[in-house]
Amino acid sequence: MSTQHDAIAVIDFGGQYAHLIATKVRRAGVYAEIRQPEDATEKFASYKGVILSGSPSLASHGEDSDWNKDILDLDVPILGFCFGHQEIAKYYGGTVVHGGREWGAATLHLRGEHELFHGQPSQQTVWMSHFDSVTELGPDFKELGYSILGADGEPHPNAAIGSDTLKRYGFQYHPEVGDTEYGAEMIANFALRICGCSPSWNMDAVVEQQITAIREQVGEQSVFLLASGGVDSTVAAKLIGMALPEGRFKLLHVDNGLMRKEESAQVMKMFDDLGLGEHTYFVDASEDFLSALDGEIEPEKKRHRIGETFVAVFEREAKKLGIEDHLLGQGTIYPDTVETGGTKRAHTIKTHHNRVPIIEQMMAEGRVIEPLADLYKVEVRELGEKLGIPKWALYRHPFPGPGLGVRLLCSDGKVMAPPVAYAIEEVLEPLELSGHAMPIRSVGVKADLRVYEHPVIIDGGEDMETVLEGARRVLSTVPDVNRALWNLSGTPVETLIPLAAQMTRERLDLLREADALVMDGLVRHGLYDSIWQCPTAMVPLQVNGKGKELVILRPVHSERAMSARPAPLPEALIEELRIQIMGLEGVAGLALDLTSKPPGTIEWE
Ligand code: XMP
After folding, report:
1. What is the separation of C-alpha 76 from the centre of its chain, rounded to a whole number of angstroms?
2. Ligand 1 site: residues with CB under 6 angstroms?
3. pLDDT tens digits along 488-514
């Protein structure tokens, strides 16, 4: 860690959002590091404060309770959120019970002034997500605020608690989540006013720290970086290029056959424009990837095969080019790790291509370098701007390493039994909508756990608002459903038959065509910059006895990819895409994915 900067430790008790706390502390200008609950007390010696994260565990049941509590005896301020708040309350003599649960937005009513709430109104919106609550406080503590859910709800005590003598504090809500109105300010107040940190951490410091870290890790070796041309690997390339002397850094761009239409040619040109061209090698390995994927229909296995093939191609090319004693460079960012279950308590949502076991093995051997592994996409883009990478390269839509491989669903033609139809009809009928559960499955995330469930396709509805409401109702009430789509084909769905289909060039070309039409449409309608990402997926389904493929549009708004909202598309664009995509040979239908993340993920697999 950086010795010139004041720092805060964030203890990660699990849950998909814990890492956001560290990001928010850094946003306040203070360096933050993630630590584990069982880490030795000595590891905390240099921090000026500690934050305890939330957790999927229940403090009332004593779950995950044998962490290193000596940390609570450190002579620095400590603040806990949700589970962390309850653990602090318990340790200092308070009571936590299973009950008093709250979900979503609540109003925090402050009891009086406090440095943690400096500059904030006495009533404000906070974001709740808990089953347990603190009912009694230990002798040194007092209630700093209570919460009320809804317009005329009952007060929930102890939403914020603290002891200024002990310098121990707790919030039942999640200030790290954007939906807590003054969450960023509370975190900043803790770091700056309570812990007394000076705000010296910024993007210049990140660049400086990373360049030193890269030089230290690489030593006398060299780096060979897998560069897809996406935002992350491009920023990583620029950073590593700045850190190492001429000749010790090379890039490999692999055409895995799963890229967008004409993408590899554009990427090679982009590297030229960015001044990285002379260090970049290109290989067409599409045959390797397609034969690795042959016969595979299960999403996690597809992801594993893609990741393993990247490593095989990388090693083969390094050998061919005579690049020896090198580290594998990757543009891995934080969500790749947490979604792969790569933090101690996190569940595997999906294995990212840069986190397959063979790469984890190489990491354990110190053979991988990933300067962005701790950042989210927003920070990567800011860092890229600092490094002088032009905006057009930084603000391209994110594209996953496995590319179209996770957007082209494959099938053995067998029906995956969908949930019962009557439950769907019951929910949609009052809105004058109808729906069909699809006989295939896609990946999603519910309560921090991976799910592999059925999409429902909705028919009817004159306007998107009604269909969005229908989608919300289906997703919250029908079991075994994790996605809701709107049928844009023009003809109501009567039957959906899965067809046997593999990852073939022919199918990939059809998806490439559809994707290119979508991307063109977004640009033409001035939407490319306001929509965060818009995957186009394709499912081998015959609709009403016709065609072979259902094409799905998945436009989303997001900031850090850990959560996402469906992005509405204008009617005119939908109409153009309907005509263009339905006109492609083999296309059986077109649908718009209206699912938020959770319960869907952005990609279908
Ligand atoms: P999901 O589908 O999990 O995706 O909501 C979150 C973000 O990550 C991208 N993604 C990947 N990126 N390798 C990557 O480099 C992968 O294996 C991978 N899988 C998903 C996805 O496009 C979205 O931006």
Report:
1. 32
2. 335-336, 339, 349-350, 352-353, 398, 400-402, 533, 561, 597, 601-603
3. 999 999 999 999 999 999 999 999 999
